[in-house]
Write a structure and sequence with these properties.
The protein is mainly α and 342 residues long. It has helices at 4-39, 42-73, 86-113, 125-143, 175-185, 226-237, 239-246, 251-254, 258-270, 282-305, 311-328.
Length: 342
């Protein structure tokens, strides 16, 4: 009987292969239906379907399966790779890139044939499936070292959550405690004597602020598991990309040259999945590959087509860009080094 670890490995690999192949089949089938509508020839439909089957078979046998075998069996080769994920890079290049290229081709074919042949916007199912498969791949890569049973405390791995983690607690004194220690060095206390009890009433440390041990009838309200939080973080990580790609559902945008800029920038933003969640390169990648180009594109779309994209995401891109530049570059200037200012 196979062990639980082997079953989990087979399930993960099967899910990742489905994330690789299913979006390609769905997008290519929609493109085949478009070709059937435009050309009225059933041969074109089956040629596109056959091309999709041949593509998935080829990349699976020549690229995907050998890569997964090397990663799973030859651990020494990938021991020093800690800042990026080869599997995510292969997925983005082999699946996301051709899917976005087919979506752009679908727009171009309908525009070239004229307004009477506008048949499909490729919205909802194809686009959502591509992004959802990318999210699933990201979740599987994060969840792979994690045990699916037992408590999260028993999981000997880093779950790569973006929130701060308290790893060391030191004694934290209040302002009055500091004044007491400074005056004690000069032999003077708050009441004029050499001894005092000011610190007896001060908190010894800040551990109680981070305590997660609660008792009582409502203790279940404080229950949390980092493995479930991982799913929420993964979906929130891609909401900006989802909202940008959703703009192509507007006919005036899809049947124009704006579709090129949207899908190209969306693909560049998808490259962030290659960087490991705990890497220090992720904030810079988010600024260069997502927030800054998305901000420019959204401002341009708003000026031409109106509010086809929510203003909230434009404000989000503005705030992220400004805070990234300020806290990473401007605070290092001599003008902003004065602690007395704020």
């Amino acid at each position: 009987m196979p062990s639980g670890r082997m079953i989990k490995l087979v399930v993960y690999e099967g899910m990742q292969f489905m994330c690789l192949s299913v979006p390609v089949f769905v997008v290519m089938e929609r493109f085949a239906s478009l070709m059937l509508h435009v050309r009225g020839d059933l041969t074109a439909y089956w040629l596109v379907v056959a091309a999709s089957i041949a593509y998935v078979t080829t990349i699976s046998l020549l690229l995907w399966v050998p890569l997964r075998y090397v990663i799973l069996k030859q651990h020494r080769i990938f021991t020093n790779i800690t800042q990026w994920r080869p599997t995510a890079l292969a997925y983005v290049v082999l699946c996301t890139l051709p899917c976005f290229a087919i979506l752009i081709a679908g727009s171009k074919v309908q525009v070239d044939k004229g307004p009477h042949y506008r048949y499909d916007l490729f919205s909802e199912l194809p686009v959502s499936l591509v992004i959802f498969s990318l999210i699933c791949l990201d979740i599987i890569e994060r969840l792979r070292p994690c045990s699916l049973t037992g408590k999260a405390d028993s999981v000997g791995m880093e779950l790569d959550l973006s929130g701060p983690v308290l790893t060391h607690i030191e004694q934290i004194n209040s302002v009055s405690g500091r004044l007491y220690s400074e005056r004690s060095q000069h032999g003077v206390t708050g009441n004029g004597s050499a001894t005092g009890r000011w610190q007896d009433h001060e908190p010894a440390n800040a551990a109680y602020l981070y305590s997660s041990n609660h008792s009582g009838l409502l203790h279940f309200l404080w229950s949390q598991d980092m493995r479930s939080e991982m799913f929420a973080h993964s979906f929130l990580f891609w909401m900006d990309v989802v909202e940008l790609v959703r703009v192509t559902g507007v006919p005036d945008v899809f049947y124009s040259d704006w579709v090129f800029a949207i899908y190209i920038l969306a693909f560049l933003s998808c490259l962030r999945v290659v960087v490991t969640p705990h890497s220090a390169l992720l904030p810079l990648a988010g600024f260069i590959l997502q927030d800054l180009p998305f901000l420019v594109l959204r401002l341009a779309l708003t000026s031409v087509h109106g509010f086809v994209t929510p203003l909230l995401y434009t404000m989000k891109n503005i705030m992220v860009c400004l805070t990234f530049v300020y806290f990473n570059f401007m605070t290092k200037l001599r003008l902003f080094r004065r602690e007395s200012m704020f």
